[in-house]
Amino acid sequence: MAQTVKPANVDGTFDIEQEHDTIIVVPAVDLQELDYQRIEEGARIVLDLLNSTDIKNVVLDFHKTDYYGSTALSFFVKLWKKVRVRNGRMAFCNVSEHEKEILHITKLDHLWPICPSRIEAIKAVKE
Question: What's residue 41's pLDDT?
Answer without folding.
Answer: 84
